[in-house]
Amino acid sequence: MGRRSGDETRALLLRVGMQMLLERGVSAGVQHIRLQEVLRRAGLTTGAAYRLWGDQEDYQRDLAVSMVQLRLSGPADYVRTAVDDLIASGAPGDDVIRAAAQAHVRATVADADADDPTTVLDTQQFLISLALRTTAQTWPELRDAANERHRESIAAFAEFYAYLMEAYGLRMKSPLTITDFTEAMAAMGEGFAIRALEGLEHPRYESTNGDEIPAGEWTLFALGVRALVNEFMTAVPAGAETAR
Hints:
Elements: H1 6-24, H2 35-42, H3 46-50, H4 56-69, H5 77-88, H6 93-106, H7 117-133, H8 140-168, E1 170-172, H9 178-197, E2 204-207, E3 216-219, H10 220-232, E4 233-235
Antiparallel strand pairs: 1-4, 2-3
Helix pairs in contact: 1-2, 4-7, 4-8, 5-6, 6-10, 8-9, 9-10
């Protein structure tokens, strides 16, 4: 094999560092990823790294940025997968809300015993990225990466919510926009994800009579989503177009 270029060596060491983060979980954080250990795993010498980074903190900064930029799947893929069949079958909106919220709650629990390894990695990556974003002020580069990730997520979820609104004949209440709704949803969803990082179990409720809350099991997140939908959206009058 030919000699690696500087860019190839940099990519390799960041890739190894990200793999170590994914293996160790969100509690590790980049400060525990030691450059010497990364070099040993990559089979490289110290000189290979210090030609690229001035010190370990420089490497950890780039590792944090790379981890925040990493996406193993599209931002809204997991929730779309959870509800597409329900929408196609004409299921009630409350069923869609419950299924979508449950998918998000599952996506915040790093369960090493989950059947699908891809799901485990997706969850780990999401939680590690979220934890790093809470420290975005540490480095300007990390703040910029966190802001860009947020913009990408908002755009993807706004498109998904517009699809749901079209399917269920809803529009935004004036002067609110779908971006406003998406930002509110993101704040609530990420807030519950941070609770999960703290080890707090997600609250669940069983509604039996269906008089005030539709019958069935509800997560607290699902009830919050339902409240936001009711406050932000209204039914489209017959013959009118869905407002975005």
